[in-house]
Specification:
Blueprint: E1 7-15, H1 17-23, H2 28-36, E2 40-46, E3 49-55, E4 61-66, E5 71-75, E6 81-90, E7 93-99, E8 105-112, E9 115-122, E10 125-133
Antiparallel strand pairs: 1-2, 1-10, 2-3, 3-4, 5-6, 6-7, 7-8, 8-9, 9-10
Length: about 140
């Protein structure tokens, strides 16, 4: 049985975000702003239906999906692209594969105690983020 990720998480730290944004070909001015942000995460999980919100004053992104079902994801708020996305459980990790223009694009979430870990990948770039559960 996969873990329940439901909760509100506050940003703690990140590593290698700029390389990840470069791999997505994000404009330098937007990259500089993104590096200053400390987004929160809100996850709602009801059975195999999930909503993952990334919340910041600059730009927020909401992803709603059914685990195991491919869908077209509109990443206009992120980098202006669309991709075919599938989110599945691999053990205790929630894993997202985004097929499109950028190779090896996706992410994985997992819990370690009260900390939510996020690993973002695009091309050869890997970004690590950590969030602490506050409710």
């Amino acid at each position: 049985m996969p873990p329940n990720l439901t909760g509100y998480y506050r940003f703690v730290s990140q590593q290698n975000l700029e390389d990840y944004l470069k791999a997505l070909d994000i404009h330098v001015a937007v990259r500089k702003v993104a590096l200053l942000l400390k987004p929160d995460k809100e996850i709602s999980q009801q059975g195999d239906r999930m909503t993952v919100k990334t919340l910041s004053p600059f730009r927020s992104y909401v992803m709603e999906f059914k685990v195991g079902v491919e869908f077209e994801e509109d990443l206009k708020a992120v980098d202006g692209r669309k991709c075919q996305t599938t989110v599945t459980w691999e053990g205790e990790q929630l894993v997202c594969v985004q097929k499109g223009e950028v190779p090896n694009r996706g992410w994985r979430h997992w819990l370690n105690g009260e900390k939510l870990h996020l690993e973002l990948t695009a091309g050869d770039a890997v970004c690590q983020q950590v969030f602490r559960k506050i409710r």
